[in-house]
């Protein structure tokens, strides 16, 4: 942002310069979106020299905060899943330890879903953002299945929105359907953020991980 504003570089030029010095730099999609908006404001004179750079990155901070929740939850799942479940069983089922697992790993879900439908939607969108940031890893898909199982058991109404569920009532929609709408770009900004990086084989793996989720 500094290079764009004060050095007059384009976003691509600024990224090239940053990566030349720090090859590991990889801005997340939310931050890239904000940088593009910032570049447009500079380009068309809608941002003066006195503007506070931090004003343009509040969305990135929110994105990081949401993903941080997913990171901590997934880490707890990976750490506790094998301890809680019975040997030989899929960790996502939490066989013999559902209550303990739910409290430790997903104990904050009642608070996070207080906002109803929009909160559930935001939660699942955050989960997908985190999963795509890490490259859709198998261990993260197990965590996603566990998260969806808890939501299915404890949230009565999961609804993906009018675009995704025109012909059914709110109580009929489940987490799999909401996720389907998210990855297809029917609701939220997830699809736009990851445009060009959502591959069919990744989507297939996500859906395969959620088969029969309502029965777990």
Automatic annotation (TrEMBL):
Query: Keyword set for this entry?
Result: Hydrolase, Protein phosphatase
Q: Which GO terms describe its cellular component?
A: cytoplasm
* UniProt feature coiled coil, ranges: none
Q: Which domain of life is it from?
A: Eukaryota
Q: What is this protein called?
A: Tyrosine-protein phosphatase domain-containing protein
What molecular functions are annotated in GO for this chain?
MAP kinase tyrosine phosphatase activity; MAP kinase tyrosine/serine/threonine phosphatase activity; protein tyrosine/threonine phosphatase activity
Q: Name one GO biological process term.
A: negative regulation of MAPK cascade
